[in-house]
Amino acid sequence: MIITRNWLKKYLNLDNISNDQINMALNSLGFEVDNVYDLNSLNSELILGYIEESKQILNTHLKLNKVNIGTKSLQIVCGASNVDVDQFVVVAPINATIANGLTLTNKKIQNYESQGMICALNEIGISQSVINKEDQLKIYNLFDKKLDLKKYLGKDVKQIIGLDDYLFEVDLTLNRSDCLASFQILKELANYFDLEIKNYDNKFNDFKENNLDLKITINKKIEEQIRTISYSNFVLNNHLNKLDSIDDIFLKLNQISSTNNLINDLSLLSTLATAQAHILIDLDKLKNFNLKLELINHNDKELLCLTSDNQIVNIIGLQTESNFSIDSNSKNVLNIMLNIEPNLMRKQQKLLNTSNINLQRYIKPINPNLFDLANSNLANLLSSYNLVNKAYKVKVLKQTYKNKTEFEIKISEINDLLGTDLTINQIKNLFKKLDFKINNKNDLLTFSIDPNRIDILSKNDLCEEVARLYSYDNIQEVALSFISFKKPKNLSLKLENKLTNYLIGLGFNNTKTYSLTNQIDASHWNLFNISDFINLLSPLSNLRQTYRTSLSKSLIDTAIYNHSINNKELKLFEIADIYNLNQSKQRHLVFLTSHHIYKNVLNHQLIENNFYYNKEILENIFDLYNLDFSQIKYVNNLDVIKEIHPYINASIYYQEQLIGFIYQLNPKFEAENKLNKTFVCEINLDILNKLKNNIIEAKTLSKFQSSSRDLTIEISNDLNYQDILLKAIRDVKYITNNKVVDLYLDDKLAKNNTKALTIQFIFNDLEHQLTEAEINTEFEKIISNVKKMKVVIR
């Protein structure tokens, strides 16, 4: 990003501020200045001249020119193809040294005395890379609609076209992409030097209601990646298709080639100021007002394009196609403003293999809602060239992005984090000229954030902003103090370590997987309804741009990979954290079993993986956390994602709180990925730690022999087994345990949507040996309770 002193002077009074001070300010504010360029020193003397006569020198490509420099006329020989009469030109007089190192002397060319040089831009310090190919061998013709250039003949031309400027080349970090709008850096410097910004408000404000009924349909494949679509339109006066030299040179100093199209060039100036790219279309060249934003196969590349009737209107990031572009005869101009997911545009830039002012802004995370500012700025620029006949307000077709614009933080939190002793007034003064609003109630500060600062997402970001504006150099260094303290007992960590040892003891492998995934998978596998996903500003790949919302998918991907290399007997687990933007963190456990759970090669013993094996592991984990099993509920969920078996799955609740899931993968998904029968279980350890019973009681073992009774019942598949069990044992004494020992299903039962369960009840007492009569009496109570529920006893 390039900032020039002359541009800053339009808005700030820099009379008492040197270039070194500006350089120091930018670096202090966190904008690293890579290079500075003093353009005024590149050429010792350049003056304005006017070509009165131009005659071809016989048998050469040269011309003999009479150039008026105000006080006299010079005779100059020039070989440029475009030199002609009635041109205002840049003249390097005798003894002047120009940027290419040439010092001018009085010499003869083809026997004609040449008293100086008519200059091309690349000879006086403008990079050849920003000069159009056809203009590189041409002299530069000056134009300024506001100035009577004849009054300035012989004067310093550097002041007229802006070559007396001083440039600061600033390296922007990704989080400060907002400063791709030069207005943002302007505010930062105004705030640093405590200067009032003048001429900032747009002079043009005569906007009319927009009645243009434009429709832009978005292809479903990219719908979620298009954040903002807006448009406005202008009716133009007759115009010359020429940019003032000072604006033309300003574009070139910013490493932007002018397009030789006045309206397009003004839109580039607007983009420099606001960071919002403009797509300009001649409305009269559109057959209808129904456009599409879609991916088009163009030159064997899938490019994001704006189309009309299957014709490409604009390849996003490039200039509008010639069939629809603005020209000197255009009267009605459509101005479309887009904000697109940067990852999509990075792919577009790679395919186009180019870089320009628009692509540089499309690929960075910038406020998606800049359309009103950009439209006003463009209207102001058009108005300064007397081009606006009518201007219309912005219409928004899509606006999905809303950044968090308000934070509350105590002054003590800021000072504790930064090691400062700032007062509320000091903090307010730090943001005085920025688009932040700060209110306080006692020591609680409420920050309304500049909407352009989409990088401020948390209190820590806000504290970092305070430190930046206060200046890191002003924060006093304090020696570290070491305080010994008694390490607190961490029961949660101890339980987690026991849990890890338990699973390893069962033959599970502790696995570590990548925390980042793609947005689609993060949303699809959001089993725990995590809100406000964390998306990286600039991910290396679309496949790794969002923090995962569950651990299950990562472990399943690991299993798929292991099966592909013929490692099919799998027992895997992982313990890791899940995050979101609301500073929420959840500790999760996921474990996975696949194929056989036991395999003995010598005697060919095999035990197939099954739901109840995994459920037993899960319940042993619950036992480790001392949970009350009577309050655990397993609920089958038919409405699950396609990768999960619709019938062999359960959401797990404890005290009516969701704590996790256990499920088999869908057989179709297993077949597609060449997986054997695979079960997955994921639970939220934070909830287990919160609900665990911290009081562990040593249970007395009965010295008397226990007895058992079995009861087989038929229940509907729609009924919850645990609810029935709790009702069955209500007011029954001497029960020490119960469990399902058999499940039976035949065609008749399946037809009636029922199943047969055999439940074993175990009776015992600590005080005496139970008699058969006592056991039978209690067992009859169970049977009676079951009959009251109208459940069939087999």
Automatic annotation (TrEMBL):
The keyword Isomerase does not apply. One of its GO terms (biological process) is phenylalanyl-tRNA aminoacylation. SMART domains: B3_4, B5, FDX-ACB. GO terms for molecular function: ATP binding; magnesium ion binding; phenylalanine-tRNA ligase activity; tRNA binding. It is an enzyme of class 6 (ligase). Binds 2 magnesium ions per tetramer. It is found in: Cytoplasm. Mg(2+) binds at D455, D461, E464, E465. Its cofactor is Mg(2+). Keywords: Aminoacyl-tRNA synthetase, ATP-binding, Cytoplasm, Ligase, Magnesium, Metal-binding, Nucleotide-binding, Protein biosynthesis, RNA-binding, tRNA-binding. Pfam families: B5, FDX-ACB, tRNA_bind, tRNA_synthFbeta. Residues 402-477 form the B5 domain. Transmembrane segments: none annotated. Its EC number is 6.1.1.20. It comes from the Bacteria. It catalyses: tRNA(Phe) + L-phenylalanine + ATP = L-phenylalanyl-tRNA(Phe) + AMP + diphosphate + H(+). Residues 40-158 form the TRNA-binding domain. Residues 702-794 form the FDX-ACB domain. Belongs to the phenylalanyl-tRNA synthetase beta subunit family. Type 1 subfamily. Tetramer of two alpha and two beta subunits. PANTHER family: PHENYLALANINE--TRNA LIGASE BETA SUBUNIT (PTHR10947:SF0), PHENYLALANYL-TRNA SYNTHETASE BETA CHAIN AND LEUCINE-RICH REPEAT-CONTAINING PROTEIN 47 (PTHR10947). This is Phenylalanine--tRNA ligase beta subunit. It comes from Mycoplasma leachii 06049.
